[in-house]
């Protein structure tokens, strides 16, 4: 098994105080950073995660995904505008990735012109879709963390299962928009075949 870490939408707009702040996001990012620091300190980061992928919600004009009257299920306040400060990664995560060799890091953007909850709807800077990229690097398993459990983490993990990857959800490294939905998402992912760790 060759595992990639998928850090989903660890962006400032999804951090407490951001345009679409999610309670618990900062704590989740800290735990991811601690996990990475520990693996690095013990010299096993590159074996454990030969590839680390960050996804970013990257909206230019996402249609009804943005709304002045959001329902917080299918429509949302303006968030993660491409190129804006709120669309940047939270510095807790960018700092944690600073010492990872650039060839081991992949940055995925998604959602330019429509809602795209799953990282598998995204692509790297040269336009290569995430699944193709992972296959090309020999990745067979993914560990998923980030924001939001009940939306982009959910969609990304379900797509990863469908694409044939072994999937683990790092359940102390995620945060939900709606905690109740977060809990039911974890059950749904378990039933879909993901391992909850
Ligand atoms: C997300 C709501 C809107 C997410 C993205 O990253 O889970 N949620 N856009
Ligand atoms: Zn969005």
Automatic annotation (TrEMBL):
It is an enzyme of class 3 (hydrolase). GO terms for biological process: pyridine nucleotide biosynthetic process. GO terms for molecular function: metal ion binding; nicotinamidase activity. Its EC number is 3.5.1.19. The keyword Glycoprotein does not apply. Keywords: Hydrolase, Metal-binding, Pyridine nucleotide biosynthesis. InterPro entries: Isochorismatase-like_dom, Isochorismatase-like_sf, Isochorismatase_Nicotinamidase. Residues 3-194 form the Isochorismatase-like domain. Pfam families: Isochorismatase (PF00857). Pathway: Cofactor biosynthesis; nicotinate biosynthesis; nicotinate from nicotinamide: step 1/1. Belongs to the isochorismatase family. This is nicotinamidase.
């Amino acid at each position: 098994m060759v595992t990639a870490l998928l850090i989903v939408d660890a962006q400032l707009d999804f951090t407490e105080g951001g345009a679409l702040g999610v309670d618990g996001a900062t704590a989740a990012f800290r735990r991811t950073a601690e996990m990475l620091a520990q693996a690095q300190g013990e010299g096993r980061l590159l074996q454990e995660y030969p590839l680390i992928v960050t996804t970013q919600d990257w909206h230019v004009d996402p249609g009804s995904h943005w709304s002045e009257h959001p329902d917080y299920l299918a429509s949302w306040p303006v968030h993660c505008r491409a190129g804006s400060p709120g669309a940047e990664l939270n510095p807790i995560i960018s700092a944690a990735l600073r010492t990872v060799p650039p060839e081991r890091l992949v940055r995925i953007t998604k959602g330019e012109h429509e809602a795209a909850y799953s990282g598998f709807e995204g692509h790297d800077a040269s336009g290569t879709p995430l699944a193709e990229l992972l296959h090309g690097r020999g990745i067979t398993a993914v560990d998923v963390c980030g924001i939001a459990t009940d939306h982009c983490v959910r969609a990304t993990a379900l797509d990863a299962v469908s694409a044939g990857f072994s999937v683990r959800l790092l359940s102390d490294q995620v945060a939900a928009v709606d905690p109740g939905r977060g809990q039911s998402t974890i059950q749904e992912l378990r039933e879909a075949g993901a391992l909850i760790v």
